[in-house]
Design goal:
The chain has about 575 residues and is an alpha+beta fold. Helix content is about 40%, strand content about 20%. The strands form 3 sheets. It has a 6-stranded antiparallel β-sheet with strand order 6-5-10-9-8-7. A hairpin with a 2-residue loop joins strand 3 and strand 4.
């Protein structure tokens, strides 16, 4: 849901503060407008927020609160029909809405946006009937944004104005990441009647609603402070619905004893597992029992022995599972615990966590992650192992039908993966090309090439003050006549390797070498005053360091001859395919 937060900031500035986006983008060193199809790092969002506060004159809290309201009321409506439709059909009340936002994030991660570090919402009912909202976010100090978003969602989707009091903020370490944990108290401000058609899940009309709704239920909602007393009975009813006091005209009734046999339950939910706070498996579905023999005995094994956690990226313990119980959970079967038949392919199970306070046990209800018939065959999964009510059966059949008709239900996801793969390869090639260019050309020319485009280096540059040093080997022709070719190659390699290291130490520019001649320049391509001193120091260092190089003929130390000259020169790169830089004296 927050993968496109940067685009929301951009639209907010453009729509609400005309003419300010150019200043904001300039402050953040951005060129033009942000693009929908491009992925931006998290630092860009922080820079945008700071720039907006500075240029628009907001405080941080005021800006983020308005941004949260803008996200719900305008940005989602104008940019994403999928998100808007999903939010509008998410729940009957604000509490369930908040608890199901994590499901929206999961949906976004499945193909609309790249994987995002989305916040996690968890709303619980307090003793006074108000809500305690806990938000876990990798983004720091965004509590005002969540405040504005929650308030706008309550008003837009449930017609109720709420007050939000930001409470304790603390830092938690979850899955090796520092997470900002924020507590907020949500309470009803006053009942409000929206000028829109009344919800059909209550009744078709206001008059009909008053007839079918139990008066005692409304009075009970008022006594628990979930609803404020009002002369307008319809307003009280709407407020009760928004805060979760009334849903579908009745309170649910739960049986004292669940009339279902254990074997029936285990067959109906073949991928379920129940474990305690120590992760000891108490019982599991029939398919999991067949995959993992230790799960057949209650309390004989821990869940972590058979499964590893893929998503969400949190620690593998019951406390973390409870904290993120609104998330979709994906477990991977450990290969060493599976029967040999299933070890060739990755076996993932996706599902939800349900915590039972009464007996301190966690229930995981899951199903295998397969989308096509080919995946079923590859993982040796049979339809009989999947419950009749499990949507996985329909997904597999749909994948087969799409394949036979030439379509593919996962085409968008595969195309995105392919694009990301080629983008990664292109980035690797760019870095490799840059490394090669840096090995041939100075960094100054490499940066000019990248910023100006093709052939930016053909333009000649005039340097008013620079120093050139030439060196060669005394009696090199005689040495070549009396030595073998491999001896000459070894000699030059050893000599020039020493000289190359010295040019780096003294920060002078190696122009080129031809045969035994070696050319160095100072004061180029970046002009500086002490160019003659640097070149002279480099020359002395080369004279001393190359004494270790032995003449293959006389077996004495190699003798070098060097010369220097300072004055104006002109330098540039010659020919479009040539990677050498040439410097000439200017007459």
């Amino acid at each position: 849901m927050f993968a496109n937060i940067n685009l929301c900031i951009q639209k907010f500035v453009i729509d609400k503060h005309e003419g300010s986006w150019d200043k904001v983008s300039s402050e953040c060193a951005l060129k033009g407008k942000l693009q929908h199809e491009k992925t931006y790092n998290k630092e860009i969002m922080d820079k945008l927020i700071i720039a907006c506060i500075k240029i628009l004159g907001f405080t941080r809290d005021a800006f983020l609160e308005q941004l949260g309201e803008f996200y719900i009321n305008e940005f989602c409506l104008s940019n994403s029909d999928e998100i808007t439709e999903r939010l509008s059909t998410l729940s009957h009340d604000i509490r369930s809405f908040l608890n199901n936002l994590d499901n929206v994030h999961w949906y976004l991660n499945q193909g609309i946006f790249d994987t995002v570090d989305a916040p996690s919402f968890n709303a619980t009912v307090l003793s006074d009937g108000n809500l305690l909202l806990n938000v876990l976010s990798i983004r720091y100090k965004m509590d005002s944004f969540y405040k504005g978003l929650t308030r706008a969602a309550a008003l837009r989707y449930y017609g109720s104005e709420i007050e939000i009091e930001i409470g304790e903020r603390r830092e938690e370490n979850i899955g090796g990441k520092k997470i900002d944990s924020i507590d907020m108290k949500v309470q009803l401000k006053k009942p409000r009647q929206r000028p829109q058609p009344r919800p059909k899940f209550v009744a078709e009309t206001k008059k009909g609603s008053e007839k079918v709704l139990d008066k005692q239920t409304v009075e009970r909602a008022i006594s628990t402070r979930q609803v404020h007393r009002s002369k307008r009975r319809w307003a009280m009813i709407r407020s009760a619905i928004a805060m979760g006091a009334l849903v579908d005209k009745f309170d649910p009734i739960y049986p004292n004893v669940l009339i279902i046999r254990p074997d029936t339950f285990s067959n109906a939910f073949p991928y379920h597992v129940v474990f305690d706070s120590e992760l000891r498996v108490m019982h599991a579905g029939v398919t999991l029992q067949r995959l993992f023999l230790p799960m057949r005995s209650a309390g004989s094994t821990k869940l972590s022995v058979c499964l590893s956690l893929v998503y969400p990226p949190i620690e593998f313990n019951c406390l973390a599972f409870r904290k993120f119980s609104n998330q979709v959970f994906i477990f991977r079967c450990r290969e060493n615990m599976l029967p040999p038949l299933y070890r060739d392919n990755t076996y993932n199970i996706r599902g939800q966590m349900i915590w039972q306070d009464e007996d301190d046990h966690m229930v995981f209800l899951g199903s295998p992650m397969v989308d096509t018939m080919d995946e079923l065959k590859a993982k040796h999964i049979k339809f009989s192992e999947i419950a009749q009510h499990d949507i996985t059966r329909d997904l597999a059949d749909k994948g087969r039908l799409c394949k036979s008709s030439g379509a593919d239900g996962n085409e968008v996801i595969r195309l995105r993966e392919k694009v990301n793969k080629y983008m990664d390869l292109a980035e690797k090639e760019r870095l490799a090309r840059r490394g090669l260019m840096q090995a041939i050309l100075p960094l100054y020319y490499v940066k000019a090439w990248e910023t100006k485009g093709k052939n930016p280096l053909c333009d000649a540059n005039i340097f008013e003050e620079a120093t050139i040093m030439f060196s060669d080997i005394v009696m090199f022709g005689s040495i070549c006549q009396q030595s073998k070719p491999d001896q000459i190659v070894k000699l030059l390699n050893e000599l020039f390797s020493i000289m190359d290291r010295i040019t780096v130490v003294h920060d002078v520019f190696k122009v080129e070498y031809i045969g035994d001649a070696y050319c160095v320049a100072g004061g180029v391509p970046y002009p500086y005053e002490l160019h003659a001193q640097r070149v002279a120091n480099a020359a002395i260092a080369m004279m001393l360091a190359t004494r270790s190089v032995v003449n293959p003929v006389t077996h004495d130390a190699l003798v070098l001859r060097m010369g220097m000259h300072s004055g104006p020169i002109m330098g540039g790169r010659l020919e479009s395919d040539c990677h050498d830089s040439t410097f000439l004296d200017r007459p």
